[in-house]
Amino acid sequence: MDPVRAVKGMYDVLPEDSIKWQRVEAAFARTAALYGFREMRTPLLEPTRLFVRTVGEATDIVEKEMYSFAHHDEELTLRPEGTAGAARAYVEHHVHAKEAVTRWYYLGPMFRAEKPQRGRYRQFSQAGGEIFGDPGPGCDAEMIDMLVGFLKAIGVPGVEVLVNSIGSGDTRQRFRDALRAHFEPKKALLSEDSQRRLETNPLRILDSKDPRDVDASKDAPTILEHLSAEDRAHFDGLRSLLDALGIAHKVDTRLVRGLDYYTRTIFEIKGATQKLGAGNTLVGGGRYDNMIAELGGPSVPAIGFAAGLDRLLIAAEPAGAAAVVDAFVAPLGAAAMGPALVLARELRDKGVSVEADTRGASLKALLRRANSLGARLVLILGEGELGRGVVTLKDLAGHAQEELPKDRAVAIVTDRLAAAGAVRREEPSS
Ligand code: HAM
After folding, report:
1. Which of 32, 178, 189, 269 could form a disulfide with 221 if both were Cys (CB 3.0 to 4.6 A apart)?
2. How many CA atoms lie less than 13 Å away from 146 in the CB half-sphere?
3. Is the pTM of this model over 0.70?
4. Does the beta carbon of 80 sit less than 6 angstroms from any atom of ligand 1?
């Protein structure tokens, strides 16, 4: 029979890896909370026109990467990114009327039908954040500072910050015209994709990794030459605040980002890792001061970022396996099963994570299982123990063994684990 496999570009996360995911997600949530971001969640499905309007018709995402389908009379798309949905929710719930500044974060899967490779998947996860209502550049600098701190904290080596400004108002249009004028005479030298981009979106030529395009863009005009005085002041303000925060950063005048909604500040953060090849951009973000108004809301400035969690896990290599449980309860013989299950429940009630054997395996097999789970303590209940009203406690780390009175076993085990600093779950409050 033909085995059923996961969809190309999508993958399973099994428990030995999901523990790493949980740690990185928890570290992100903690960092975000320290900076006043609150979690929000949006649906995975949105009306297709939301992304066409915001991400932009002439972008790779909208042109060829969206999972879109018609359902009855609705055109729907699996979200390729989180900003458009967050902005839609901000407008839909009139959030601007409730608070002057909104800081939201989110974690979750996104979908893009890209060519899969290491670090590039068709279902991937982002940790993102958006700030509505603050024109910057203070919050722009603070956001980058938060991200650099987060990446360093989870162990990403060689964090590198790239910044640029895409201007506002008609800057982009003027820059587009200047780029067209530059590339038109070299059209035949460009890649086929970029020959097409010359008509639809010449900024994207700067983003191309094709050596022909890189060559033709070497002496291309830079957007910084086209910034208005206000945009220039905003960008200079961002740079001096980054300096004040001690954040090393490079101005990359070729940075344009692959989404059309940006205005003014744009940035990317990379890590020095060979493991991701060319796709070593870990975080991308920027300002999108026009999106809220374009979605029918008031004129509210905004900035945000998204970090690719799949890539963070590859770049940071978070520490390996943790213990699955703190203790293992080993009943020997049928009569011990009931008392063992009761003991396991009493331990769990005190916040100790426990696996109890329910297979009736041999002591040797049970000890092997306890070891493989990383359990520190094993509580053995055999016929002898039942008769004497005791439990045998085996400390797998200290290699010691002793008998405990059964009615004191829970208290002693809890104390021992606390003293050993073993992983303890929160005690239930009720
Ligand atoms: P983006 O640059 O398209 O920006 O994606 C952000 C990050 O998501 C990338 O730097 C990368 O780490 C990860 N990523 C993107 N595509 C893939 C993929 N196919 N496989 C694995 N990881 C991927 C955005 O999505 C914007 N919404 C960021 C933003 C928020 N701008 C303002 N607010």
Report:
1. 178
2. 27
3. yes
4. no
